[in-house]
Write a structure and sequence with these properties.
disordered C terminus; about 45% helix; alpha/beta
Length: about 400
């Protein structure tokens, strides 16, 4: 016992323990947290990946629904084993700070990991970050209540998510939109020139999303197909690039749908190649909490955007950066908006430039980076990393 006590005293305050799904492959983990931590020097950081990169990609590659379901059961067991190991280490070593992305263990939290998590978060500074309405099933009520109570700071993307936190805990909440640092350093003039050259012959629509959002896209595909038919008369081809972890298989008359498996590399490539970014939504409790990150990605790459006027999208898209649509009762507005941007070159070009300007002013990567630097500023030990 004396040895363990001395070990705890020795290790206390030496590192930051970061709980992520996967720091590279999982979008929320990377874009909300790890893209910043990799730029912070002078701090020892231990990143706890719940799932390995190969396991994460294998889950995305499985086509069969039954096999995917069985593999997720297997992964859930792996997540529990890994997270219990990380929690045990943090109980012994007592980190200076813990950063948690969304949940430590999704859905059901067993009594042992719950008690271990409570022990860890009750003895250090805690930053809890999430960008979706995770309390609708992704996180169990006892883990939600635990993190609401013990977190020193709760970092969310918008006011709607803040309002879901119990009122007595809302003073802890910080609103920090998600942004994309990968677009920094690109030659935007070159990208714009290449887009202009292809604009006369074809229009590339880009839809970046995860499989859970496919019903939102499927709903408006008939309208996009009608737009493609109108553009065909003008000898223009309309292509829909679907960058997702699942294919969209819908029959169309004139619209060409190109499915591309999601990866950060594929996303970057298509952000540069496309002409218009789209984000359709259906109004419900879940979509009202979405942080508009895909729109911000589009804007970061000089793309004009078209979006459903739902939730945080209303604050991201303005008149000079894109088109907001009230599509609750009709999807024809999608046909009209895509067509307008596809035939009015100057409007399309100026809207893209204004979108990029708004990204730099309101959704700056540097601002988010400074937030995380300040959060970790009290930890001045030598930087290190332990990717288990």
């Amino acid at each position: 016992m004396l040895f363990i006590g001395q070990y705890q005293m020795k290790k206390k305050s030496e590192y930051v323990s970061v709980y992520l799904r996967n720091e590279i492959e999982e979008p929320a983990s990377y874009y909300r947290i790890s893209q910043y931590l990799h730029k912070i020097d002078g701090v020892k950081i231990k990143i706890n990946n719940a799932i390995g990169r190969k396991q994460f990609r294998r889950c995305m590659d499985i086509k069969s629904d039954i096999l995917c379901y069985l593999y997720k059961i297997y992964l859930y067991g792996i997540i529990n084993i890994r997270e219990i190991y990380f929690l045990l280490r943090d109980i012994i070593c007592r980190p200076k700070m813990v950063i948690i992305s969304r949940t430590v263990i999704p859905k059901r939290l067993g009594i042992l990991p719950y008690l271990m998590l409570e022990k860890v978060v009750s003895r250090c500074e805690v930053y809890w970050d999430f960008d979706d309405v995770i309390d609708l099933g992704e996180i169990c009520r006892k883990q939600w209540k635990l993190l609401c109570e013990y977190s020193n700071k709760i970092v969310v993307t918008n006011q709607y998510l803040k309002n879901r936190i119990p009122e007595h805990n809302r003073r802890k909440v910080i609103i920090l939109p998600t942004t994309d640092g990968d677009m920094q350093g690109f030659d935007y003039q070159k990208i714009e020139k290449e887009r202009e050259e292809s604009y006369e012959k074809e229009i590339g629509l880009l839809w970046l999303a995860t499989a859970v959002n496919i019903p939102f896209l499927n709903r408006i595909i008939p309208a996009i197909d009608k737009c493609a038919k109108k553009l065909k008369i003008k000898k223009k081809v309309l292509k829909l690039y679907v960058v997702c972890n699942q294919s969209v298989d819908v029959e169309t008359e004139c619209l060409e749908i190109i499915n591309i498996i999601w990866s950060r590399e594929n996303s970057l490539q298509m952000l540069q190649k496309s002409h218009i970014g789209i984000m359709p939504l259906i109004d419900n409790e879940y979509t009202r909490g979405k942080g508009g990150f895909k729109l911000i990605q589009y804007m970061a790459s000089c793309l004009p955007v078209i979006a459903s006027d739902i939730g945080f999208s209303h604050f991201v898209v303005k008149e000079d950066t894109g088109i907001l649509l009230d599509d609750r009762n009709s999807i024809k507005c999608w046909e009209d908006a895509i067509y307008y941007l596809s035939v009015n070159k100057e409007y399309w070009k100026n809207t893209g430039r204004q979108a990029y300007k708004k990204w730099k002013e309101d959704f700056s990567y540097e601002v988010n980076l400074e937030f995380w630097k300040k959060a970790l500023s009290g930890i001045n030990k030598e930087r290190g990393k332990n990717n288990v």
